[in-house]
Amino acid sequence: MAFRRIGFIAALLATALASCGPAIPPAGNYATVSGRVSDATSGAGVANATVTVNIVLAATTDASGNFRIVNVPTGPWDYKVTAPSGYNDSGAVDNLPPLMPGETRTISITLTHR
Fold first, then answer.
1. pTM (2 decimals)?
2. Which end of the chain is more exposed for a tag (fewer CB within 10 A), N or C?
């Protein structure tokens, strides 16, 4: 009898916790931003640059300068790049065309040397 009561209480608690907080939008309501960060002079990929979208979503470029950020909310968006040593950071880039649900937006970013 005690096991039934514990099971019931556990199920009740799980249901209560599952209903807390905001609902997560369906996957189709997000977009993906990907691209490449390159050297403005040589065109070579810039490794270890951090691309930040909407202030909170970020990715670090790989050895070839490529990055990918998933689950970006659709609508208006902006980005900036924090450059590794030897490069100037990009300024914030905004007023971009809005992201659409399910879209993958590819951008190219060039950085200049200090």
1. 0.75
2. N
